[in-house]
Structure prediction request, 300 residues.
Amino acid sequence: MNELAPEISISVINTNNREIALQCLESIYANLGSLNLEVILVNNACTDGSTAIIRQRYPQVEIIEHEQLLGFSTNNNLALQRARGRYLMILNDDTIILPGAFQAMVAFMDQNPQAGVAGAALLNRDGSAQYCYDFIPNPLYEGLRPISEYLMPHPDGKGKPLETGYVGGACLMARASAVRTVGLLDTRFDPLYSEEVDWCYRFKKDGWKIYHLPQAQVIHLGEVLARRSSPARYERIYAQKTVFFRKHYGEFGAWSYKLTLWVVNLAKAVTWRLLDLAGKKEAPDEFKTHWKIVQRALKF
Prediction:
């Protein structure tokens, strides 16, 4: 690889989220230090003037534009196909890089050649931790959440790098040499959800290790996108998990997941309906959410 190639190539997807994307870019360049990196930003059918203002403020950013609204995997693949870095990063536009995060990730990957993927510690605005790493999904474990989480919680790294099953895709760094054999993101997971789980699983199957790095901290403004999501968001998450299980576990695995998901959500729906009758304020919305999954789970 050319000695002038960047250490990190960062893929950022912007879908009419101009101010959030600008905040993300500001944090990237404020915290790169001596690292040589490239940023490839995909403006995903944007109509908010993103391209012009980003080119004005950050002329070093390579911008890919298209008019058709495309999914997360497809958009990231467009950027990653152009990337020249030793490490490839997918980074949500609703993130803010904190000091030392990039340096910690590069140093760890350099020192651990068996690591194929590293994920940052994702934080809320107030500094509290977000759910951002877990076991490789198992149909029964996933379908029985949250019961399974109580019976078999994921270990805590206690502030040290932790080998895990997968890491969140809001800030995920992959070794470029590994990507050349593992491949890019699987577009069957478009428009969104479970693509990073599938990617990490494929890395593990190819012999690479996956790590969560608590010392690399990134604020993830997930609520920004959640506000723009429809009530069908949870249905889409569960449907995409079914795609994952069907791909890696076959129809038996997919049905195992769907049946356990159906049973758990039926129990939740009944519980919330009783709480609704008892006058609990949030109960009607919770009941509707779980009842909708009961109606849809076996059709995923």
In short: The chain has two domains: 8-227, 230-299. The radius of gyration is 20 Å. The chain has a mean pLDDT of 94. The longest strand covers residues 209-220.
